Amino acid sequence: MAARLLTRCLHLRTFHLLPSTNPYSIGGAAFATTAMSGDKPIENALRQKLTDALKPQFLDVINESYMHNVPKGTESHFKVVIVSSAFENVKRIQKHQLVHKAIQEELDNSVHALSIVAKTPAEWEVSQDVGKSPACRGGAGL
Questions:
Q1: Which of 102, 105, 110, 140 is the most exposed place for a label (fewest CB within 10 A)?
Q2: Residues of the chain predicted below pLDDT 70
Q3: Which Pfam families match (predicted)?
Q4: What global pTM score does this model have?
Q5: Which residue in 43, 104, 51 sits closest to 77, CA to CA?
Q6: Which ranges constitute the DSSP H helices of the chain?
Q7: pLDDT for the residue numbered 135
Q8: Is the dihedral of CA 25, 48, 44, 84 positive or negative?
């Protein structure tokens, strides 16, 4: 039953087996979990790579995995709120592409879902609203 619930939530990209020193397995799927070690390797990697690539004035990397049917401590679903001058005169899709480029390794190997709020400093000054993330709907809206 647990494997079915996990499969239904995997909705945005193909799930990859995660390299981790403490894998947690349910129904044959492995997850990067921080429950035992207490550290946040994926979150920290996202934060570092985005900082290095885009020099943000504001950056928040939020682990939203708890909102999904994954083991406690999993790092697979994230929301990134980033404000950077690198986004000046750049269309919304290009902002997202810049974020994706900076963290491509994590997207390919460990991050299952990513929500991005990317703004210029001027856009952030006008509105700091980042919206509320929707609840997991099981992938097919079931």
A1: 140
A2: 1-38, 138-142
A3: BolA
A4: 0.71
A5: 43
A6: 2-9, 41-54, 92-102, 104-109, 121-126
A7: 75
A8: negative
